[in-house]
Every structure is written in structure tokens, then in C-alpha cells.
Amino acid sequence: MSIQDGRGETACCSPLMREPLTEDWAGDLARMFKAIGDPVRLRMLSLIASHEGGESCVCDISPAFELSQPTISHHLKVLREAGLLDCERRGTWVYYRVIPSALAQLSAVLCPEAGVVEGSACVPDATVVEVAR
Length: 133
Hints:
The chain is an alpha+beta fold. The protein is built from seven helices and five strands, in the order ββαααβααββαα. A three-stranded antiparallel sheet has the order 3-5-4. It has a two-stranded antiparallel sheet with strand order 1-2. Strand 1 and strand 2 form a beta hairpin. The longest helix has 14 residues, at about 25-35. It is elongated, with a radius of gyration of 18 Å.
């Protein structure tokens, strides 16, 4: 599995360890991190991701929170606009699902070790030193 960075290139090492983030990519990542920085939205994301089939109807989400329907809709909209959720209308209900590539980007950008992506050509510096001896 390869991770696509904000510039469309295949990344094999943590972007924070490899090179400084571009302004555009940092902005995209910041929107995603800001969206999940709210405890309600983080719980919603977790609820949807862990729901059977990997998607959840808004009717399954609402009972988990003591919030009004407009507030639930607002939080879901923020998660969608941040690129973390996708949705599909089926009849009168809207079903939400997590976008796996968005979670992969968030995870990859923070991973402190090189060579963590399966099949990666990158290796941790300590390994390079040992091989060079």
C-alpha cells in the first residue's frame, strides 16, 4: 500500500521527517486535524468507522449524543468538508463512511519512524549505519 502525499507523490517515510510540509499540504492536514480536535467529532468519526460495514446512518449516530439534530448535522458537515467523511443519500437517510486515504495521511504524517509503510524502500537511519559497517 502506498501513501499519497499532498503533492501526488508516493511517500515512503514520514513527511515530517523527510522534508518540510508544503503550505498547501499543511493547510489540508490542519483542516483534518482541526476537525477531529473536537471531542464530539472525534467520537463521531470513531462511531462511523467502527460501525458494522464501515458506514453509519445519521439515525445511528444521533442517539449516541445529547445534541440537537442541527448540531449533529453541523459536526458531520465539518468532517465532510475536512475530507474525512463521505456520504450517500438513500431515501430519506444519509449514510456516512470514513475515507480511508484521509486517515492514512493523518497517520503517515505523524509516524516518527522511517520505513513504516509496507513495502517501503526507506529504512531507519540506524539500519543504514549497521549495514554500512
